[in-house]
Write a sequence for this structure.
């Protein structure tokens, strides 16, 4: 399981500043920390995507089908449920095969019959904030395909924990309030 320091701090504001100290606390509470990885390293494969078009999904009222320029000359079809997606806007693009900071690997698949070749990211999915209400809108002026870490600050670290645990369990054992599972 991967858990980001930014996510932990959003749930437990009193955590120590030092990632090493937080790792020590995790170990004391029974979690085995196998690595502490800079967030920027995990976000390096995520790029700027420019949404060229947005259409209503033919089989789902709450989904949209987008054509996204990924900077390679290809156009990817991405299905999203985000309300704030707009044509000609720029968002983090997570291509199929890329792993999110929480450890989830994004796969090509079908959503209600339409192919999705990745996903567009929100701040909380990328460990860059707590907003999951919509996509993280990026500034204009960056070419599609530009690494996200070259566009916006990506502070923080992610703790790679051995075994399976839910975020609620980690937060509770660190002394924070019980929370629902993230993601």
């Amino acid at each position: 399981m991967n858990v980001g320091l930014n996510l932990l701090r959003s749930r437990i504001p009193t955590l120590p500043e030092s990632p090493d100290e937080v790792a020590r606390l995790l170990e004391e509470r029974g979690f085995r920390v196998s690595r502490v990885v800079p967030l920027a390293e995990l976000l390096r494969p995520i790029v700027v995507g420019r949404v060229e078009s947005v259409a209503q999904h033919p089989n789902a009222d709450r989904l949209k089908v987008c054509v996204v320029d990924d900077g390679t000359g290809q156009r990817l079809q991405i299905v999203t449920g985000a309300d704030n997606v707009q044509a000609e806007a720029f968002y983090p693009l997570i291509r199929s095969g890329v792993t999110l900071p929480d450890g989830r690997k994004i796969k090509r698949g079908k959503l209600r019959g339409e192919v999705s070749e990745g996903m567009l990211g929100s701040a909380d999915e990328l460990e860059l904030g707590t907003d999951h209400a919509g996509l993280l809108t990026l500034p204009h002026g960056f070419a599609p395909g530009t690494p996200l870490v070259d566009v916006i600050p990506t502070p923080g670290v992610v703790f790679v924990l051995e075994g399976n645990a839910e975020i609620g369990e980690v937060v509770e054992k660190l002394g924070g309030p019980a929370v629902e599972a993230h993601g």
